[in-house]
Write a structure and sequence with these properties.
The chain is an alpha+beta fold. It has helices spanning about 10-25, 35-40, 50-60, 65-70, 90, 100-115, 235-245, 300-320, 325-350, 360-375, 375-385, and strands at about 5-10, 30, 45-50, 70, 75-80, 80-85, 95-100, 120, 125-130, 140-145, 145-150, 155, 175-190, 200, 210-215, 220-225, 260-275, 275-280, 280-285, 290. Helix 1 (about 10-25) packs parallel to helix 6, helix 1 (about 10-25) runs parallel beside helix 8 (about 300-320) and helix 10 (about 360-375) packs across helix 11. The structure holds 8-demethyl-8-dimethylamino-flavin-adenine-dinucleotide and P-hydroxybenzoic acid (PHB).
């Protein structure tokens, strides 16, 4: 099989790239390791930045997003018996966030691609990349109907943190910069209405918590937990009790409880590779960087990468120039580092570190007090939370 851009991975990054290229008349093919039902069922991100929303609407993908996405003009921060609201809209000249599940974005993109009979191959094993430094790249893998081979002009590695693309780059080319945090998140999706119409981020001496939602009947909450603790060691009652304590919920505000439909423990890390390109291989999304989820940025970063990458391919095929492709890594990394900084800052402020001393605890409270009490500091928090402007 021959195509212009071979895409590995059908997460938000790979699907969006395929969709943007298709709109521009550029051929591509996606190879995905998992099944269609698996990628549609994967519960992950929920908070969409203003620029992500705007882009999806501009691309004609906004029908369900505008109908079902929940627009949030602010969120609450709780710490040391304080409850302070960050008025995102007021502080950013009208910008908002949208709560819309990542799996809904995946569903919208998949529907749009399938409507046009886009070549998306699921359940492809043993994907490997060849010739990426020789200008004649090729992707090989094995599907239900036998071996599959795709020769292309470029490869987009959109296969997430554990994918094969990054690992195909020879040793010594990439600088790997990372930080592991000594805690994890227990994330639950529950069939329970939300007690609050806005997100709540809580700082507590027992650990951080985030109270979120998906729609009127589904809530989504995160609790800081021990990275080595099994999700099973958290019976449902313990999760709800702990959420109530950390959110400082009082009797007038008992959290509505309900069956827990999904639970996952995720380790927290910050991770970046530089550069995000080698030969004809371009990395995008989680394949190139991971942010701890406290800033709710992972999917949004993947979308920002793809906007630049698609612009680079379009310029190449339309104008025969490679300026944007050559600048892809540099331009994306400048924004990625700013988003890493924000995610690291939010993580440092809301989590309890093992053996944390009283001085550190006071620093966190002072930081929260300043971030929510000073107009200038709150404006900076809001600017980052609704999302920095895209760079391309
Ligand atoms: P994805 O979504 O991981 O998709 C990669 C795809 O590649 C496939 N793949 C392969 N295909 C072929 N061959 C191989 N060898 C392959 N190896 C892997 C995978 O099956 C998959 O389909 O990466 P992408 O597209 O870059 O998107 C990134 C986002 O998924 C990620 O950043 C966010 O979900 C992160 N994240 C959050 N981001 C936010 O913006 N807001 C949030 O609130 C938020 N919460 C979260 C999160 C991630 C979480 N987990 C589990 C990592 C909460 C959690 C729990
Ligand atoms: C979510 O709703 O999934 C969510 C909210 C806030 C975060 C991360 C995830 O920081």
């Amino acid at each position: 099989m021959r195509t212009q851009v071979g895409i590995i991975g059908a997460g938000p990054a790979g699907l969006l790239l395929a969709y943007m290229l298709r709109r521009a008349g550029i051929d591509s093919v996606i190879l995905e390791k998992r099944s269609r039902s698996y990628i549609l069922g994967r519960v992950r991100a929920g908070v969409m930045e203003q620029a992500t929303r705007d882009l999806l609407i501009e691309l004609g993908l906004g029908d369900r997003l505008c109908r079902d996405g929940l627009l949030h003009k602010g969120f609450e921060i709780r710490f040391a018996n304080e409850r302070r609201r960050i008025d995102l809209s007021e502080l950013t000249g009208g910008k908002v966030i949208t709560v819309y599940g990542q799996q809904e974005v995946v569903k919208d993109l998949l529907a749009a691609l399938e409507q046009e009979n886009y070549p998306l191959h699921f359940e492809i094993d043993d994907v490997h990349l060849e010739g990426i430094d020789e200008g004649a790249p090729c992707i090989r893998g094995r599907g239900a109907e036998g071996p599959i081979e795709i020769s292309c002009d470029f490869i987009a590695g959109c296969d997430g943190f554990y994918g094969v693309s990054r690992a195909s780059i020879p040793d010594g080319v990439l600088s790997v910069l990372s930080r592991e945090y000594p805690f994890a998140w227990l994330s639950i999706l529950a069939e329970a209405p939300s007690a609050s119409h806005e997100l709540i981020y809580a700082h507590h001496q027992r650990g951080g918590a985030i109270y979120s939602m998906r729609n009127k009947r589904l809530s989504r909450h995160n609790l800081q937990c021990d990275p080595d603790g099994a999700a099973k060691s958290w019976p449902a009652d313990k999760i709800w009790d702990e959420l109530e304590v950390r959110l400082n919920a009082d009797n007038s505000e008992r959290l509505p409880r309900g069956p827990i439909l999904d639970r996952v423990i995720t380790r927290m890390r910050s991770f970046v590779v530089e550069p995000m390109q080698y030969g004809s291989l371009f990395l995008a999304g989680d394949a190139a960087h991971i942010v701890p989820p406290t800033g709710a940025k992972g999917m949004n970063l993947a979308v920002a990468d793809i906007k630049c990458l698609a612009a680079g391919f379009i310029e190449h095929y339309r104008a025969g120039r490679r300026d944007k492709l050559n600048a892809y890594s540099t331009i994306c990394l400048a924004r990625i580092w700013r988003v890493q900084r924000f995610s690291w800052w939010m993580t440092s402020m809301f989590h309890r570190f093992p053996d944390q001393d009283t001085f550190t605890a006071h620093m966190q409270i002072a930081e929260l007090d300043h971030a929510t009490g000073s107009q200038a500091a709150a404006a900076s928090l809001a600017e980052n939370y609704v999302g920095l402007p895209h760079s391309c």
